[in-house]
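ENTRY TYPE: protein
CONTENTS: sequence, structure tokens:
***
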Amino acid sequence: MMTVHEVSKLSGISIRTLQYYDSIGLLKPADYTEAGYRLYDDASLEKLQIILLFRELEFPLKDIKKLIENPNFDTGKALDQQMRLLELRREHIDNLLNLAKGLKKRGADNLMDFSAFDKKKMEQYAEEAKRTWGDTDAYKEYAAKAKDRTPEETANIGKDLMKIFTEFGGMKDLPPESEEVQKQVKKLQDYITEHMYTCTKEILSQLGSAYSAGGEMNENIDKAGGPGTGVFADKAIQIYCSK
């Protein structure tokens, strides 16, 4: 765990900015000390890097929050989009650099060429990336339910969700197709539907795959229920969804 001062020093982001990210629910600390100081784990730092990459790409904070709060948000897919946007930005900068060099060498010959200033390709791709995460029915339902929640209420929902995975962790000695484990999958589905969005079997199956695919979500689940909990929950979920 790292303190907010250590994260500020490591990332170059001011403590005040990190506190602001916490206050708007963009980047919540992983935990707090007994004295109430913020603590950040590796998953928090990974999330901060994703946020800062979006900021470098000039995404407004409200759009970044919408992206990473999407129930189907996938870090790998988001990074692919960010890399493509960075490639487009590099292409744009190269065009500007070539224009500047041309103006220096040829002067007036380049005065009619304004194509290097065209940012439409970057802007169109950025809008496509936003639509990828922001236009699903599940996200719209989630946004409507989360609209009036306090940060504390949102945090409590996340903690209660992790308790369900703690319970999954205590069942790992049972067959994933057993009645007790399958009831636990139904409990998870009902909890997501009540507090987030209508969790159909199709969506639940997709979530299950994410639970065992590595990355932040898998790490958090294994932290709650012990190593292998994400994989176990996914197996149980796929059995449930196949019925």
User: Anything to note?
Assistant: The CA atoms of residues 94 and 116 lie 9 Å apart. The longest helix spans residues 75-106. The beta strands are 2-3, 31-32, 38-40. The chain has a mean pLDDT of 84.
